[in-house]
Amino acid sequence: MTVLASIGELTVTYRRDGGKVTALRSVSLDIMAGERLAIIGESGSGKSTLALAIAELLPSSSADGRIEWPGLGRTPLLGRDIGFVFQDPSASLDPVMTIGKQIAEVARTHLGLNWSQAYAKARNLLERVRLPDPDAALHAFPHQLSGGQKQRVAIAAAIAAGPKLLIADEATSALDTIVQTEIVALIRQLVAEDGMTLLFISHDIALAAELAERIAVFRHGRLVELGTTARIVGAPTQAYTRALLDAHIGLDAAPLLDLAGRRA
Ligand SMILES: Nc1ncnc2c1ncn2[C@@H]1O[C@H](COP(=O)(O)OP(=O)(O)OP(=O)(O)O)[C@@H](O)[C@H]1O
Known about the structure:
It is a peripheral membrane protein. InterPro entries: AAA+_ATPase (IPR003593), ABC_Ni/Peptide_Import (IPR050388), ABC_transporter-like_ATP-bd (IPR003439), ABC_transporter-like_CS (IPR017871), P-loop_NTPase (IPR027417). Its main location: membrane. Belongs to the ABC transporter superfamily. The structure is a single chain. The chain is of the alpha/beta class. Helix 4 packs across helix 6 (about 145-160). It has a 6-stranded mixed beta sheet, sandwiched between helices. Strands 2-1-4 form a 3-stranded antiparallel beta sheet, with helices on one face. The protein is globular. The model has no long low-confidence stretch (mean pLDDT about 90). The longest helix is centred in the C-terminal third of the chain and has 18 residues, at about 175-195. It has a domain at about 5-75 and about 165-260: Rossmann fold (3-Layer(aba) Sandwich), CATH 3.40.50.300. The chain is built from 11 helices and 9 strands. The structure holds adenosine-5'-triphosphate (ATP). Adenosine-5'-triphosphate (ATP) binds next to strand 1, strand 2 and helix 1.
């Protein structure tokens, strides 16, 4: 397997209220080309900071360490090489631009298509993310869609230029459980169809285990455990990972137990 991105000794410090907050501490991690990797941890553990650092989207902060792209062979361009889906689709969609134009613009900018080709691509993407009535949706504005539908549009825009890496940062956290399951299934399907690498960021270990082949556990800005999903769920080495798993036992343990191979 090729390494898509290699993160070495990455430390990120934000300045806040005259002081400093260290969000990532000496994190080293290889993201393999074509894998589905989940980053999990409690709020404030540094998950989003890692995602932003990879996408070169960090706000004013100081970052030490390296991020290299052996599997890409060039510095990635956000939108073209990296698609980013945020928790709140309203934050990434322009409220006064039609859905079709927002997606078409990504395709036009990064793929060099003319408007007519870009709109055809947008329509096809709306179909792929299973938005009901893609023709009508092309001319709709974000406020006319539900939260789940808006997230489908944000996903369509994120993959419009055929990125190698899709980063989903708590992309399903604001949705109700049924819609959440549908969006997870959709992400899984699109990633498989387009051969993308997935970085799935979540505070929810059960959801991460459903989707990812490997899980990286973060705590207080450190990578504390990394392994295959079956190993992390079935035989975690860190008390912290065990505590994250235990928090799910009793809520809905079945999927996790299935993964650990403890059930028939
Ligand atoms: N722009 C910023 N300025 C100052 N401090 C920040 C900034 N962004 C994040 N932090 C701090 O960095 C630490 C890590 O935050 P980060 O958002 O990366 O964690 P997270 O695991 O993604 O949390 P959540 O799940 O709540 O989004 C936290 O202490 C947070 O308060």
